[in-house]
């Protein structure tokens, strides 16, 4: 049975699964893969022992052989060629349509076939692009449409982000997370898109990396701008700094700004320090209801315990006899009148 291995062709790119025959392949080995009419160089990232065959839902590629020094040198030359051709291809794409963007050009080892990743084009322009690029690049063209995030990823290693480091998607991240503007607000960042957007023009993927920790740190802390009631009076939350574990509040009466540790507020929130909206929505109606009930109360009746073991006194026996005689007398009187 063929051994199955996982191979990558680009840094942080998708994993392709290949059948390796009887080759003794280890992680990090460079190998040659045949795909359609092309020979591609890749490196092993998963060995047969690390793969569950039943979970693979893609067609297996075939490993041709181990890569030689000549193969690696040819791969470097074709990679450099593709990077240089992006500029010429972009100039031609702009003449076809100003919105077209070339993400990457990847040649196989022979240089006779290449994959061109493009964004922002329509089907009517596809045929023109294929013909023009085939002539320009002197190879057989396969065009792949990518979105804006994928276009940034296709730029490859060495492209720096706002932090001054390589883009996460080109260096290690294999999947794009779901990002929202709310994540930026929860971390106290400016909602200005120009400050929290990446080279792709979309929200930074790194906004998702620490958002759960911020949510845990925040816990039940009040929001900035919210009013709370404290033992020293009503106060407005002025600033919440989770990294320094500090919450600033401005007292309404004196205008004084007080600082409290965030963990102390978390412990006292709802007891000594209470959100004003809780008092208005829950506690105030409950107090008003209790006040109305008290004003409408005339008396409080207490239950009487009629136990079965209670002793019957002589006076109670006499009362019962008297009641019984009166009942008999009434019944007798009615019978006499009928006669």
Record the SSE blueprint.
Blueprint: E1 4-8, E2 16-19, E3 30-35, E4 38-46, E5 61-66, H1 69-96, E6 101-107, E7 113-119, H2 123-137, E8 140-145, H3 148-154, H4 168-171, H5 181-186, H6 211-218, E9 227-230, E10 233-241, E11 246-251, E12 257-261, H7 262-268, E13 274-275, H8 276-296, H9 314-338
Parallel strand pairs: 2-5, 7-8
Antiparallel strand pairs: 1-2, 1-4, 3-4, 3-5, 6-7, 9-10, 9-13, 10-11, 11-12
Helix pairs in contact: 1-2
Keywords:
GMP Synthetase, Chain A, domain 3; 5-stranded antiparallel beta sheet; 339 residues; 5-stranded mixed barrel; 9 helices
- Arithmetic mean pLDDT: 82
CATH topology of the domain at 74-145: GMP Synthetase, Chain A, domain 3
Helical percentage: 25-40%
Distance between the termini: 119 Å
What class do helices, strands and sheet pairing give? alpha+beta
- Order of strands in the sheet with most strands: 1-2-5-3-4
Main beta-sheet annotation: 5 strands, mixed, barrel
User: Count the strands?
Assistant: 13
Shape: elongated
Description of the molecule:
- With 339 residues, this protein is α+β, with helices and mostly antiparallel strands.
- Among the domains are: 4-67, no CATH class; 74-145, 2-Layer Sandwich (GMP Synthetase, Chain A, domain 3); 227-277, no CATH class.
- The protein contains 9 helices and 13 strands.
- The protein has helices spanning 69-96, 123-137, 148-154, 168-171, 181-186, 211-218, 262-268, 276-296, 314-338; strands spanning 4-8, 16-19, 30-35, 38-46, 61-66, 101-107, 113-119, 140-145, 227-230, 233-241, 246-251, 257-261, 274-275.
- The strands form 3 sheets. A 5-stranded mixed beta barrel has the order 1-2-5-3-4. Strands 12-11-10-9-13 form a 5-stranded antiparallel sheet. The protein has a 3-stranded mixed sheet with strand order 6-7-8, sandwiched between helices.
- β3 and β4 (38-46) form a beta hairpin.
- α1 crosses α2.
- 17% of the residues are buried.
- The model is unreliable at 334-339 (pLDDT under 50).
């Amino acid at each position: 049975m063929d051994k199955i291995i996982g191979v990558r062709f680009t840094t942080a790119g998708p994993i392709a699964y290949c059948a390796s025959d009887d080759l003794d392949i280890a992680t990090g080995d460079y190998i040659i893969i045949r795909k359609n009419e092309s020979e591609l160089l890749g490196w092993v990232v998963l060995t047969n022992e690390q793969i569950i065959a039943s979970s693979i839902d893609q067609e297996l590629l075939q490993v041709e052989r181990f890569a030689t020094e000549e193969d690696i040198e040819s791969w470097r030359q074709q990679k450099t060629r593709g990077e240089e051709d992006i500029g010429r291809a972009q100039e031609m794409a702009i003449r076809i349509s100003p919105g077209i963007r070339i993400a990457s050009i990847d040649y196989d080892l022979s240089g006779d076939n290449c994959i061109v990743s493009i964004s922002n084009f329509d089907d009517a322009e596809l045929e023109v692009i294929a013909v023009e690029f085939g002539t320009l690049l002197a190879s057989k063209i396969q065009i792949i449409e990518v979105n804006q995030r994928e276009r940034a990823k296709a730029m490859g290693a060495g492209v720096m982000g706002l932090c001054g480091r390589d883009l996460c998607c080109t260096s290690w991240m294999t999947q794009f997370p779901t990002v929202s503007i709310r994540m930026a607000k929860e971390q106290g960042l400016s909602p200005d898109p120009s400050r929290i957007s990446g080279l792709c023009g979309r929200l930074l993927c790194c906004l998702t990396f620490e958002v759960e920790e911020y949510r845990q740190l925040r816990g039940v802390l009040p929001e900035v701008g919210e009013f709370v009631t404290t033992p020293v009076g009503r106060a407005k939350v002025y600033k919440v700094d989770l990294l320094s574990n500090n919450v600033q509040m401005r007292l309404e009466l004196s205008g004084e700004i007080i600082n409290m540790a965030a963990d102390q507020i978390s412990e006292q929130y709802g007891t000594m320090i209470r959100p004003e909206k809780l008092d208005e929505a829950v506690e105030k109606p409950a107090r008003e209801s209790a006040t109305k009930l008290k004003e409408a109360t005339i008396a409080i009746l207490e239950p009487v315990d009629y136990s079965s073991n209670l002793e019957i006194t002589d006076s109670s026996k006499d009362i019962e006899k008297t009641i019984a005689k009166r009942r008999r007398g009434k019944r007798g009187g009615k019978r006499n009148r009928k006669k």
